[in-house]
Amino acid sequence: MHIADIAVFLFVVVIIVVSLLSNVVVVICFLYNPEIRKQVPGLFILNLTFCNLFLTVSTMPLTLVGLINKGNPGSSGFCQTVGFLDTFLTTNSMLSMGALSIDRWVAVVFPLSYHSRIRHRDAVIALAYTWFHSLSFSTVATCLSWVGYHHLYASCTLCNARASDTKTQFIIYTVVLHSLTFLMTLIVLCVTYLKVLKVARFHCKRIDVITMQTVLLLVDIHPSVRQRCLDEQRQRRQRATKKISTFIGTFVVCFAPYVITRIVELSTPGHISPHWGVLSKCLAYSKAACDPFVYSLLRNQYRKTCSDLANKILKRSSFNSSVRSVENGRATDTNNTKPTQ
């Protein structure tokens, strides 16, 4: 294997391990905490998590096999099934991110009427649309035999070589697919999160005014306390910007190279480096490892749930070890005690 192939191979292995562990932790938190299950965004996060898990166990390992064998990792029918899952799961996960951004926009911009605007029924309808949308595109590609092993990406996915007889239809399909998934989701993310950022900055300004008035009124306030208030004011301004940048930035960094490569491949097939093709596919895979942290595990509710689970497990293990030590001590005392004749 070339050194670049080895680096990509190790990169995919790390993605698989991190994605499996982090997404499983999200599912455990969802099952353990009833408050998370009651929330409407929990349905979108659960759908996104299962898409990431199935993508991790179905398509990523076959990319490793493709990198080693430099060819189709299985039969044609098997590869078509995996390609169907690749298209379906990737599309579904993108649309789930768009649904999460709309939910947060409504929660921030309309906080008083959020529960009347976004209900579990609305979430189920949105999820039904994401599934219908994803199934439609993946089914069309599979029925037209446009899915197979693609050497450029070392994976079972949409393959333009299998659409040589219907090249025009394949180009239209690819452009429409990425326009209604990646581009549409990116527009929704930018519009909703920028509106959220605008509201967050407005509230920060109001808090800053109150803070500065309080600091000016307290003449005898210690300089360290005054500096701490100013530091918290600066951190409050940056916190919302960092979160919004993380939501949009991870989506663009992970998916944009792969989508752009797909579009460029339509006009100039054979002129793209295989190393770049595999790397762009791996970047798309890496979103499955980023999502649990971006949308779940870095939030206070999930961190508290993980902490409670860890404490529960540690207390149970320490309790079991103490019980075993007591039992061993009693057994030793019994063995050392001899009956008197």
From TrEMBL:
<feature type="transmembrane region" description="Helical">
    <location>
        <begin position="94"/>
        <end position="114"/>
    </location>
</feature>
<keyword id="KW-1133">Transmembrane helix</keyword>
<dbReference type="GO" id="GO:0005886">
    <property type="term" value="C:plasma membrane"/>
</dbReference>
<feature type="domain" description="G-protein coupled receptors family 1 profile">
    <location>
        <begin position="22"/>
        <end position="295"/>
    </location>
</feature>
<feature type="transmembrane region" description="Helical">
    <location>
        <begin position="244"/>
        <end position="264"/>
    </location>
</feature>
<protein>
    <recommendedName>
        <fullName>G-protein coupled receptor 26</fullName>
    </recommendedName>
</protein>
<keyword id="KW-0807">Transducer</keyword>
<feature type="transmembrane region" description="Helical">
    <location>
        <begin position="126"/>
        <end position="150"/>
    </location>
</feature>
<feature type="transmembrane region" description="Helical">
    <location>
        <begin position="6"/>
        <end position="32"/>
    </location>
</feature>
<keyword id="KW-1015">Disulfide bond</keyword>
<feature type="transmembrane region" description="Helical">
    <location>
        <begin position="170"/>
        <end position="196"/>
    </location>
</feature>
<keyword id="KW-1003">Cell membrane</keyword>
<keyword id="KW-0675">Receptor</keyword>
<keyword id="KW-0297">G-protein coupled receptor</keyword>
<dbReference type="InterPro" id="IPR000276">
    <property type="entry name" value="GPCR_Rhodpsn"/>
</dbReference>
<dbReference type="GO" id="GO:0007189">
    <property type="term" value="P:adenylate cyclase-activating G protein-coupled receptor signaling pathway"/>
</dbReference>
<dbReference type="InterPro" id="IPR051880">
    <property type="entry name" value="GPC_Orphan_Receptors"/>
</dbReference>
<comment type="function">
    <text>Orphan receptor. Displays a significant level of constitutive activity. Its effect is mediated by G(s)-alpha protein that stimulate adenylate cyclase, resulting in an elevation of intracellular cAMP.</text>
</comment>
<dbReference type="GO" id="GO:0004930">
    <property type="term" value="F:G protein-coupled receptor activity"/>
</dbReference>
<dbReference type="InterPro" id="IPR017452">
    <property type="entry name" value="GPCR_Rhodpsn_7TM"/>
</dbReference>
<keyword id="KW-0812">Transmembrane</keyword>
<dbReference type="Pfam" id="PF00001">
    <property type="entry name" value="7tm_1"/>
</dbReference>
<feature type="transmembrane region" description="Helical">
    <location>
        <begin position="44"/>
        <end position="68"/>
    </location>
</feature>
<keyword id="KW-0472">Membrane</keyword>
